[in-house]
Amino acid sequence: MEEKRRILEMVRSGEVGVEEALALLEAVEARPRAKGPLQVLRVRIHAYDEGKPVRVNVNLPLALAELLEAFLPQEAKAALAGKGVHLGDLLRLVREGVPEGKLVEIEAEEEGHPVQILVEVA
Prior knowledge:
Elements: H1 2-13, H2 18-30, E1 40-49, E2 52-61, H3 68-71, H4 74-82, H5 87-96, E3 101-110, E4 113-121
Antiparallel strand pairs: 1-2, 1-4, 3-4
Helix pairs in contact: 1-2
């Protein structure tokens, strides 16, 4: 609302013309608005790959969830896939809008080592 008021004041003072003001008002109205507090996609993976510990902790704003795959190391992607978690399906859910909370939580053992995977929206 403050932006619209500022545009109208600019018209009144002669800083911008009517056509410019209309374009500015349209741009303000078309801009997406924040829908409450910022949501974050959290991915936690604690596993072992060839005997080496793999620890991945990613916190990514939900709006940037599509970039998740670029942030995850190959070992983490393999750990997810090995447990039947399909990253593409998760990202599709996120795009469609998901409620806050846990999307995936897995605690297992592989080759004598614990494996923990947590994907949540917070």
